[in-house]
């Protein structure tokens, strides 16, 4: 039986909040959130600030060839595998201040609190900032943790291109954050990730803590539709090869497929590119990504199969070419029951209301779970809103989740008294 910290041991919620607000000043959005996309200059600036904070906390920084940052607090047993705790500092183009950032700075707050209380643990603690969790600029999402878990090769990751044709490898080099560590060489005793829920359940159920037992799986299907560029005014309707119309019918079909798979399924499209994207030219090419998710593998694969069957029929009826490529995927994840029970025990010990939760969003924890015992802690977010600059949480929610993270991590790292 490992010793758990006393229930009076809490993080410094003001310090955590101040750090969140300081990080939010880097890569500001246009409506109060953030645009600190991966491998941009603002990402580099955020990384530098985080590095300074880690050094101030007495941590030793290691960086791997994907630019992921690992800041280590030593344990008493040099042979003991570390407990990793982290998330991501990169944001969506119109992202919030807390998605990912709360997990990285929450992990730093755990270490800062351990320093304050003079806590020693057998296992080291490693605060982690994964590169390119969002997948907004370079698909797929969770790219660095995917290479770490052996899902992608380093070469595949380096070749990923953003919409301007810049490669991940070139951009990582440009911002000066290519590390020397082999990706995935590090072995983990356990991995914890603290994250806002990004959904409405905790707030609606009036619960402070999400005890995350699972994460739903995902497919990203990239469609490339080929129409014929033509004048939107002088081309008769019966002469059009309209890729834009085909896209809209496919999006409607995705909606129907997701609704017919309720409960526990979602589907939609967030990104579309028209070429030449001119108001009075019918598009010659339309590229868009269908995002479908479910906690149920059979449902997830069934939705994919149906979409991939029906989309070509829709296109054929319009004379539009249709190519489909799966550019992102992870199976539904079951998190480690021992770590899940430690999170639940910490919430109970601390007197926080809590409930089991399945994560709707994907996280680096989904890939970490392939190589180490892994789980997550979640806090509510206002209106369940995320991937929106209006994303909001309370200081109290942030601190309560960090308290639970602190207790579960320290218990797992084994206090040495
Ligand atoms: O797409 C996701 O679920 C995450 O935000 N990358
Ligand atoms: Mn996130
Ligand atoms: Mn996100």
TrEMBL record:
Sequence intervals crossing the membrane: none
Residues reported in the UniProt entry to bind Zn(2+) 2: 99, 134, 387
UniProt xrefs under InterPro entries: Amidase_Cbmase (IPR010158), Bact_exopeptidase_dim_dom (IPR036264), Peptidase_M20 (IPR002933), Peptidase_M20_dimer (IPR011650)
Classification via SUPFAM superfamilies: Bacterial exopeptidase dimerisation domain, Zn-dependent exopeptidases
Peptidase M20 dimerisation domain ranges (all copies): 216-312
Note on how the cofactor is bound: Binds 2 Zn(2+) ions per subunit.
Coiled-coil residue windows: none
Gene Ontology MF annotations: hydrolase activity, acting on carbon-nitrogen (but not peptide) bonds, in linear amidines; metal ion binding; N-carbamoyl-L-amino-acid hydrolase activity
Entry EC number(s): 3.5.1.87
Source species, domain of life: Bacteria
Pfam families: M20_dimer (PF07687), Peptidase_M20 (PF01546)
Top-rank EC class of the record's enzyme: hydrolase
Cofactor: Zn(2+)
List of residues binding Zn(2+) 1: 88, 99, 195
Keywords for the protein's UniProt record, in alphabetical order: Hydrolase, Metal-binding, Zinc
Keyword Iron: no
PANTHER family for the chain: ALLANTOATE AMIDOHYDROLASE, ALLANTOATE DEIMINASE-RELATED
Family listed: Belongs to the peptidase M20 family.
Protein's recorded name: N-carbamoyl-L-amino-acid hydrolase
Gene: amaB3
